[in-house]
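Supplementary Methods S3. Complex input for the pyridoxal-5'-phosphate-bound model.
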Amino acid sequence: MTADLAAWAEVDLQRLERNYRWLRQRAGVPVMAMVKANAYGHGLLPVATYLQNVADADWFGVATPAEGAALRDGGITRPILVIGGFWFGQEAEVVHGDLATTLPDPSYVAALERAAAAHDRVVSVHLEVDTGIGRLGLSEEQLLDTLAILKTCRHIRLDGLMTHFASADAPEHAEFTHDQMRRYARALQQVQAAGFTPRYTHLANSAGLHAFLPDAAGNLVRIGGLLYGIAGDALSPAFPPPPVQPVLSLHARILGLKTVPAGTPLGYGCTFITARRTRVATVPLGYGDGLHRIQSNRGWALVRGCKVPMLGRVSMDVTMLDVTDVPDVALGDIATFIGAQGEASISAEDYAAIMDTIALEATTALTARVPRRYRS
Ligand SMILES: *Cc1c(COP(=O)(O)O)cnc(C)c1O
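Predicted complex, serialized as structure tokens:
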């Protein structure tokens, strides 16, 4: 463990493992660990490796063939599904990586069949049907077209049928979600009527697992947010919060500390002017790290267990904090932007709410400059 970092995100792998085991038990079916977008900012390979080797994770889900290839290059041997499919020219990456893929349009089938045939391999496909989110899933017509083409393919195996919920976190949309499940059941019948028996049937994301089990369980669930312990802002308020714990916290050390008189402007644009003699702490985290500029004059951090406000604009590399009221504040003290210090805490959900967004976006936005420190 490196003791000399000035800014870092801490990733608690034990909590990750506990969250995974709880999810596995709660779902009662295999869990696809969604590790797209750098494992929601937590770090693709360290997270996937730990989940595979320690938590015995069943499946991994990524958005792109490149993410899947990175998992394979890093030693992940469990099944991987590319939920975002591929663009023409990327079929070889899918075949080489032994990645399962979705097909967002019937026109991808022939390209995939050709690439698989060229390498004398059989590629696994999970079709996504659009039952209400309107995104990448196939319409009913596209599904039937795709099935017709798949019938002629000897190098593609239809292994899965999936759908994705639009609004499973909203109790007022419960009927809409039930409709999605009914549409999914119909699509499954059509697939079976066409002579296919997909081994995997999956619908639920975190919000679906939280509010719609067992109906939405299928025989596989695709979980991101809950795996990382993000449970506050994308789940139905109608059910008790699940017992998962946040995996990521975000910290930086006080790198500069000075006292300025009342009337002192601080930061770009002089958007903050001190109203009193103020102790100003400067910490090395800015929008270049994913601490978004919209936090300027709005956000908070914890220093010595006290919640302190940001002062002035967040700049690319540094942010200022008002530590006037923090007893014994000193150079090198840790400022926590996401996480806990003693009794005080700022959840990723709190941090995201300042920006009018959800915690998933906040952790995913952390850039490569922020070292991830893994604790296990
Ligand atoms: C990202 C994603 C998930 C996981 O969603 P969470 O809300 O993070 O659990 C599941 N399925 C699909 C298709 C996704 O894109």
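The pocket of pyridoxal-5'-phosphate is lined by residues 34, 83, 164, 205-207, 222-225, 234 (CB under 6 Å). Residues 248-346 form a domain with the Lyase, Ornithine Decarboxylase; Chain A, domain 1 fold (CATH 2.40.37.10).
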